[in-house]
Task: structure prediction
Amino acid sequence: MTDSAILDAFFEECEDLLVALSDGLEDMREGRADSETVNAVFRAVHSIKGAAGAFSLEDLVGFAHTFETVLDEVRSDKLTADDDLLRVLQRAGDILANLVDAARDDIPADRDQVDPVIEELQSFLGTEAAAEEEFVFEALSLSFDGAASAARYVVRFKPGQEFYATGNDPVLFIAALQDLGPCEITVEKTELPEDFDSFVWNEGYLTWQIIVGDQQNDLAIREVFQFAEDLCELQIAEEDLDEDAPAGDADLADVVAPDVDTPVDVAPVDLPPVDTPPAAPAPEADAPSTAAAKTEKPVKRAASTLRVDPERVDRLINAVGELIINQSVISQRIDEAELPNSAELYGDLDDYKLLAREIQEGVMAIRAQPVKPLFQRMLRIGREAADATGKDVNLITEGEGTEVDKIVVERLADPLTHMIRNAIDHGIESPEDRAATDKPKTGTLRLTASQRSGSIVIEIIDDGAGLNRKRIKQIAVEKGLVSADATLSEQEIDHLLFAPGFSTASVVTNLSGRGVGMDVVKTAITALGGRIAISSVAGQGTTFSITLPLTLAVMDGMIIHIGGQTMVVPIASILETIRPSPADLAEIGLSNHLLRIRGEYVPIIDLASRLGIAPRATALTDRVLLLLQTESVSQCALAVDDILDQRQVVVKSMKGSYGEISGISGATILGDGKIALIIDPEAIAAVQANELNAQVTAQREVSHAAT
Amino acid sequence: MLQHDDPKGEKQTEFVTLVAGGQSFCIEITQIREIRRWSPVTLLPHSPSYVLGVINLRGAVIPILDLAAKLGFPAIEPTERHVIIITAIDDRIVGLLVESVSEILGVQTDMVRETPKTEEDAATRAVEGIIPVGDNMIKIINLDALLHTSLLAAA
Result:
């Protein structure tokens, strides 16, 4: 294992610890904390400090140390966690997270940010901060909570040819172990050849078993073998454990993954000899003696997470994609064979379908991650933004347990950061303004995640002033995005925010308005197959909702016929399907139609003409209408020739081999091996909305050409 | 281009010769993945006339272009007897519909002539050299030049 891999594991571990830290602080703030909460927070900081020390991340260690010292005071009731202190602690938690990020990206820490917080922390400490060293030891012994009585470790040590060839002597190693504590040493000679002829002079035939007593953990033992690990067969285990973890991995786990319950100081330390004898000395190796306390630890660690190379999961997902295609091929073949309806094969086929779907969902679940770490990062960003703008904002997250595809979580970070900053910078008013409008002085920003029928919905809700539509339109006109005399609905105005090159801030602050606007957010969301919508009430606030598909590779689609072609419409955007009666239809203009549904008039888009193909059926009443929910024109009806089926399809991108096609988001392979294009309802509907602005756009292009 | 020494110590390159728009062309063999019979394609909306559509090649979605139409000749009416050459440059895989594929031609590198300067059209832009074979002259297609323009236009 390379250094960078160990470092990566450390940062992953830090993520978990930061989550624990942030949870704990949150509980303290809400008054739900007991002494265990404070301990957990302390341990999280302590573990980060310990591991960071092993990697010589000085900034991180220094800050964590001060932080931890304050927490220790709180823990030992020398300091009371009042609002003031909690605010500083929370800020310190944010800084710690920033420092971890900085260390990961290998950039220097922002001292301007860090130092004031260190000072604030120290102001709580008074003069007691001096007693550093003692405190560290105290922390160690406390965190072991008395349960960590000295254990006996079994070291199986079999030097090989290489060991001897590099000039090592087993005697020295055994002597070093004897220095650590009382040792029982036995040697196994069973591998020695019977006859002299088969004796190889430089082979290592002997295996030593050394039982080292009085050990808190195996770190000191491992240190003895530090440079010889690769040269010999080495197993180190607590005496009563049957399974011996492979040396290398166990080593790593101990260095970078300290269990939350028992922080292990990473710097190898010679533990002071403990006077008390092992709690229950085990005379025989297989006797489960000191079991309870000790076996609990590894089990807990194993149960928490399984780290897998994402590439392996991706390969599995691809294979499952092919399985689903194959399943539809087989079911189509069986349909074509026209077996009697009673054939058992149909039942088996249904089972196959169910299984394939189950496997697919299972595989997708491997990639799914809770949005919690992402949300907590957003809280941090939100607090920083509130501090920077001097606004009083209460940040609330909901539905942190909602699970989303790993890629989605990763790619949401940037758009969400932007939106959170926007909401605080532009959305929520200053305390004075809020007071003037009878609102509570503290603004509220809610970040919620939930799962709604096959999609994930993430909402950012502020209780600020709402969108200033007049101003938005004015800016859009100034920037040439719309013509001054265009009549736009509120929704259309709201969507101008997403137009490229639009930025509402009249003053560029260092928080938002750095030239990247909401169009970048929209592009990022669209790239994930998602949608974004705005709703805003003047004076009451603004809600941005992002709807994302659960998975990226497979989606539920409705298979349709249009002009002799088979195509797929994502079910996520279909509200309902309608076979219209003449009474439902109304003409508007020469060739445009409206659909009358529940008292509303909805524009009908002829998919065939939109895609430039000739429809089979001409009269609208012979066709099927799909009522779509889209963001640009709220609702529209898509006219298609017929609906064939509804099934899962595997999405294949065409960008690599062909390029983007307007109105088409990708392709899939159907049961008969033919390709069906996947319609992008958003783009299809957007064309209509765009027609409004077509003239303006044309003018703009002319002026561009002129410059 | 892949070149290897033949026993006489001269550089040799292999080309697959084909007919499109009634004329002889060739494509370097290392750029060709496989050759398959015409099978019906899935049409693409808003595509230029020389883009026939896409096919399913063992799970991958591959666009098919009419080489004759792309080079400015009348479009090929595809039938069972026509052939698709699947080409691959870098990671991009594209199928070219041609009238027929004739043979594999081993050519000494020094036999390849530069394209004489003529008035430029779609075909000459995509030709990077000519090979005289008997009374015939075979034009080498530069796939990069051919596909670069076509795919940009298509997208």
About this structure: Chain A touches chain B through 24 residues (CB under 8 Å). The radius of gyration of chain A is 33 Å. Chain A has a mean pLDDT of 75.
